Amino acid sequence: MDHVPEAAALKLLDLSLEEVEGLLVEGNLTIGIVGLGRIGLPSATAFAQAGLQVLASDIDPQVVESVNTGSSRFVDEPGLNEMLAEVVAKEKLVATTSTAAVANNSDMIIICVPTPIDDAKSPDYSYIVSAAEEVGASLRAGSIVVVESTVGPGTVEGLIKEVLETASGMTAEVDFGLAACPERSDPGSIMKNLRTVPRLVGAESERTGATVAAIYESAFGVRVVRLSNPKTANAVKLTENLFRDVNIALANEFALLFERLGIDSLETINACASKYNFVPHYPGGGVGGPCLPSNSYYLITEGLRAGNIPYIVRLAREINDRMPEHVVELVAEAMNEIGKTIRGSKVAVLGVAYKPNIKDTQLTPVARVCEKLVQMGGIIEVYDPMFAGEKALGYDVKGSLEEAVTGADCVVIGTAHKEFKDIDLKELSTLVNGPAALVDSRNVVEPVAAAEAGFSYRGVGRPSVPRKADRAMRKERVASSVPGL
Ligand code: SAJ
C-alpha cells in the first residue's frame, strides 16, 4: 500500500495572490502530478526540489516503485536522477498508483499523461479522459487542475472540463480552477528547460491564471506568458511545433529536388542561414518523437470540425512521413552502383533513436527504414550507443559499432549520435565487405570523404560523388573511346 501524506485542506482557488505567495515561500503547497513519464517525472522532481510537497501517480506499479526508490528510467536526462534521489530521500516527492489519492490531497493537480494519435491519425484522448475522470471523482473543492499534456485547441475548456465537472459534480471556476500550461520541453534537456523556457498559462478565469502563473514562476524561476484562455495556450504549443514540422518538410522537399540537381542542401541551408531572417531546418530520414509526428493531427482534427483544413500542415506530414522510404531508395541506388542488391545483403543500421543522444525510439522513422529493408530481403544488424547490448525496435542491438559493421554490404546512418560524428571512414572501409555502400540519412559524413574512402555513397539532400575506383574506370573508358586521348 502506498504511503500518501495527507495535505491540510486548503482552497487554493479562493486565496489572494499574496496568500499564495506566502504559501510558496513556506513550501506549504501540495502539487499533484498525474503521469510519471518523460514530462511528469522531471516536473514532479523539479517542483519537489523547489521545496513544495509533491504527490504523483502513475498507472504502472513498476514506475511508482522505482520512483519511490529514487531512480528513474530516463538515463538521458542530465540532472534528473540525482535530483530525484535527493527529493525522494527528503520525502518531498511521493509516488502512488492512486490518482484518487493525488486528487484528494493536492492543491494543484497537473495532468501529464500521453496524448498519442491512433492508427487513423486521430488524437487518442483516452488516457487524458480517464485521468480527468479519476481526478474529478476525488477532486476537493477549491483545487486547481492544470493540463500539461498536448491537446487540440478547445479540448481543455471542452472535453476535459466536461469530464471533470461530470465526475466531480462541481463547476469549473466556481468550485475548482482549470488551466492549460502545455509542456514545452526538449527531451534530453528537460531539467534545464524547466528553469529556462517561459511557460504558457491560459486559464478559464483571471484568478486561476494568476495563481497558476505565480506557482510556476516561483517554483521554476521562469517567465510565464499569460494567454487569454486554455485554447490559445494550446494553439501556441501547436503553432511552435508545427512551424518546426512544416519547415523540416520544406527542407525535405528541397532535399529531394537538390539531389537530382546535384546541389548540396546542407551547403545551401547553411548559406541561407547567413541571412537575418532565415531559420535553418535540416532534411533527414523523417521526423520522429512523441511530439512532431502527432501534433499536426490535433490541429487537423479541430480544423475538420471547424470546416477549415490546414493544408500545408497536412502536406508537411505526408512529405516527412515519406522520408524513410526515400532512405531505402537511396540504399537500393547506392548498392546497385556497386552491383549489389538489398536482398541477401547485410545492412548495418547505425542509430535507431528518434533523435541524437536520446534513449528513445518513439515513432522513430528508422523503424520504417528497418522494416522496409527486411521486407526487401536485407539482413539487418543494428547498433545504437544508447541501447548497446539491449533490445531496440525488436532487434538485438550490437555491443559496438565495429561488431555491427563488420562484413556489412551497406552501412545506413539512422541517427546523428555524437559517436557517429567521429567515425573514421577509412577504418570503416576496412571492416565492411567492400565494395560497400554508405547511406547517410542525417548528414553526418561528408560526401567527398565517403567516396574517397571507397564507399558508394548516398545522403539525403546531398549530391552523390563517384568513388575513386569508378572515377578511374570512367576515365579509362573515355580514354579508350576518344581517339587521340
Ligand atoms: N528533425 C529533422 N530536421 C531538423 C530537426 C529535427 O529532420 O532540422 C527531426 C529529428 O531527427 C527528429 C524529429 O525531427 O526525428 C523531432 O526533432 P526535435 O528536435 O523537434 O525533437 P523533439 O520532438 O524531441 O522535441 C521537440 C523540441 N525540440 C527542440 O527543442 C529542439 C521542441 O520543439 C518541443 O518543445 C518538444 O518537441 C515538445 O515536447 O513538444
List the SSEs and their pairings.
Elements: H1 17-26, E1 30-34, H2 40-49, E2 53-57, H3 61-68, H4 80-89, E3 93-96, H5 99-105, E4 108-111, H6 126-138, E5 144-147, H7 156-168, E6 177-180, H8 190-196, E7 199-203, H9 206-220, E8 224-227, H10 230-261, H11 265-272, H12 292-306, H13 311-337, E9 346-350, H14 365-375, E10 379-383, E11 391-392, E12 395-396, H15 401-405, E13 410-413, H16 418-421, H17 425-431, E14 437-440, H18 447-452, E15 456-459, H19 468-481
Parallel strand pairs: 1-2, 1-4, 2-3, 4-5, 5-6, 7-8, 9-10, 9-13, 13-14, 14-15
Antiparallel strand pairs: 6-7, 11-12
Helix pairs in contact: 1-9, 2-4, 5-6, 6-7, 10-12, 10-13, 12-13, 13-14
Ligand SAJ binds next to helix 10.
Tell me what the structure shows:
- There is one protein chain.
- This protein has 485 residues and is of the alpha/beta class.
- It is built from 19 helices and 15 strands.
- The structure holds ligand SAJ.
- The site of ligand SAJ has 18 residues, from helix 10.
List ligands, each type once.
Answer: ligand SAJ
The strand order across the widest sheet is 3-2-1-4-5-6-7-8
Principal-axis shape: elongated
Estimated structural class? alpha/beta
Percent of sequence in beta strands: 5-15%
Q: Portion of residues in helices?
A: 40-55%
* N-to-C CA distance: 88 Å
Characterize the main sheet.
8 strands, mixed
Kindly state the number of beta strands.
15
Number of helices: 19
Mean pLDDT: 95
Contiguous uncertain segments of 5+ residues? none
Radius of gyration: 26 Å
